[in-house]
Automatic annotation (TrEMBL):
The keyword NADP does not apply. The lineage of its organism: Eukaryota, Viridiplantae, Streptophyta, Embryophyta, Tracheophyta. It comes from the Eukaryota. GO terms for cellular component: endomembrane system. One of its GO terms (molecular function) is GTP binding. Keywords: GTP-binding, Lipoprotein, Membrane, Nucleotide-binding, Prenylation. The keyword Transferase does not apply. Transmembrane segments: none annotated. Belongs to the small GTPase superfamily. Rab family. It is a lipid-anchor. This is Ras-related protein RABA5e-like. It comes from Populus euphratica (Euphrates poplar). It is found in: Endomembrane system.
Amino acid sequence: QEEGEGGEEYLFKIVVIGDSAVGKSNLLSRFARNEFDSNSKATIGVEFQTQVVDIEGKEIKAQIWDTAGQERFRAVTSAYYRGAVGALIVYDITRRTSFDSVKRWLDELGTHCDTAIARMLVGNKCDLDSIREVSRDEGKSLAEEESLFFMETSALDSTNVEAAFEVVIREIYNNMS
Ligand code: GDP
Ligand code: MG
């Protein structure tokens, strides 16, 4: 948090984590640019995107980090997590294994970040309800167990994408004061 000339300026670093292909990059591109990429091999080294959000009349810069595919090799570096004040832990509702991995991602987050970090569990691809492998209740229960916010999203049809990021940003903002 820095002091700007016209008042305060807020910069929040938020990381997006979860197994490969759960839709992390598309959630970010949907939020930051309102774009979706249906054949995204496109995790082309964009480190982060910055999106300005208005919370209670304050201009907040959300700097949202994408793993750029490192998660495939279990090599998400500590630099990735450094300074993060929020996290979205993403799984794919049509792929049970990605849900089973959530605990591992939470452990990793815990080793790198303060416990006070604002955390949202995200069940992505909710547009694919007909081939779902993880029920909404399972997601919700895990979130309650682990004290996480929870939402199901679709980067494809935009369901809850803005809402998920905004809940995290608002929580970070509220925790500051
Ligand atoms: P990442 O590896 O976690 O960054 O995942 P990507 O964003 O690259 O997405 C992996 C694949 O899932 C791509 O083919 C996307 O088009 C697809 N995808 C991502 N989000 C959604 C979604 O909400 N719904 C559907 N149906 N497909 C999605
Ligand atoms: Mg990606």
